[in-house]
Every structure is written in structure tokens, then in C-alpha cells.
Amino acid sequence: MKTTRKIAARLTGVSEExxxxxxxxxxxxxxxxxxxxxxxxxxxxxxQLDELLNAxxxxxxxxxxxxxxxxxxxxxxxxxx
Length: 81
Hints:
GO terms for molecular function: oxidoreductase activity. Keywords: Oxidoreductase. InterPro entries: AKR_Detox_Biosynth (IPR050523), NAD(P)_OxRdtase_dom_sf (IPR036812), NADP_OxRdtase_dom (IPR023210). The protein has one domain (about 1-70). The chain is about 55% helix and about 0% strand. It has four helices and no strands. It has helices spanning about 1-20, 20-30, 45-55, 60-70. The protein starts with a helix and ends in a 12-residue tail after the last helix.
């Protein structure tokens, strides 16, 4: 839980620095990951879709990506093998 709060706080910091929403930063981060070609997003309003579409052109700097990823701890993969 503490790690999640740290990540959320850093997400807020990067979004404020860039003047964009946290959702846009999160999607831009996801798009920066190798092997991610088409993230699946879900929206319930047209405004949300417009917001996320603007994230496609958002490029995070390496130091911003590091800021977001530093507190992250990998979790083991669970499920079917």
C-alpha cells in the first residue's frame, strides 16, 4: 500500500510538471514500454477518450520514467502456466 501511494504521488508530480492529467502520464508511460503496441483503454465518456488520445503524442523523458518506476516493486506472475 505504501508503494502504491509513492507511485501515485510521483504520477501526480510528473503530471503537474507536464501540465497534463495523471491518466495521460500513465498511458504515455505504458506506451513507452517495449513490446506494448496497443494498450486497451476503457472509457465511459467522450471526454475521457479525448483525454487519453492526447497521451499518444506525449513523450516522457527518461528521468520522468525513472521517477515513476523507482518505487515500483515487481510482483510474481500468478495464474496458469
